Amino acid sequence: MLLLIDESIVGETISLTLNHGVYVTRGARTMAQATALIADWHPHLAVIDMDLANDQFMRSVSAPSGGNARMPVLALTRRGDLKTKLAAFEQTVDDIMTVPFSPEELLARVLVLTRRVYGQKVELTPVIKVGELEIDILNREVRAGSSRLHLTSVEQSLLYVLAANPGELLSRDQIMDALWGADYVAESNVVDRHIRNLRAKLQDDWHKPRFIDTVPGQSYRFIATSSELVEPS
Is residue 232 part of a domain? Predict the structure, then answer.
């Protein structure tokens, strides 16, 4: 699966989420890189940020070539208005999602799109392991040892964003943009509050963190605690 995404946080979150299916992902940040990957690798599906692609590229990506079937395209946009969505479908995309999105919605759409185009049902792996945590996307649970922890939708999305970028410093603004979008207006401590709630459920002591580390003045990062950390393909 080709990912034409220039924001690493979004791209890595998509890659981690798609580990729930039998998908191999490769990323590109420009149309030129994406075109080269398509020619050399022949991916079966593309997830494309519409802000990075012009009309000609969008139409060429999904056009059949060399005797191969057309490649389905899931478009991403930060503009959720009807005009933008209709324009995307005019460019022959198969589906469109507004960024930010929830991991479960992304996974559901990719699974359905794969089945619709290729007539194949992709096996769903509800639980993936990330370090010492097992994340169950189907039941919105996290398993830490013998404990089963139920997450809210926001907490689950927050965990995917953090876990998909292990060791990376993520600022409050980056986290807020990934979860709610750049135009979202909220109280200044909204990210800290959700981090605190997630930590409480994970029984993660911020003085001696096992999962989420606070970096004064720089915000948060996920601690890679095991060699079993899921790596995006």
Answer: no
Which residues are CB-neighbours of 128 under 8 A, at least 6 positions away?
16, 19, 20, 134, 135, 137, 230
Domain boundary among 118, 140, 170: 118
- Residue 174, both tokens: 């980056």
Task: Read off the tokens for 225.
Answer: 């605690």
pLDDT digits (tens, 9 = 90+) for 168-227: 999 999 999 999 987 776 676 899 999 999 999 999 988 899 999 999 888 999 997 543
Closest alpha carbon to 137 in 158, 107, 111, 115: 107
Q: What is the pTM of this model?
A: 0.89
- Six-digit token string for 121: 């049902």
Distance CA 194, CA 182 (A): 17
Produce one character per residue of 57-66: b if its CB has 16 or more CB atoms within 10 Å, e if not.
bbeebbeeee
Q: For residue 154, what are the contacts with CB-CB under 8 A and spacing of at least 6?
A: 179, 194
Q: What is the CATH number of the domain that holds 169?
A: 1.10.10.10
Provide the pairing of β-strand 212-215 with 219-222.
Answer: antiparallel
Same domain, 132 and 114: no
Residue-wise pLDDT for 37-61, tens only, equals 999 998 999 999 999 999 889 888 8
Angle between helices 8-17 and 153-163 (to 10 degrees): 110
Same domain as 159, residue 184: yes
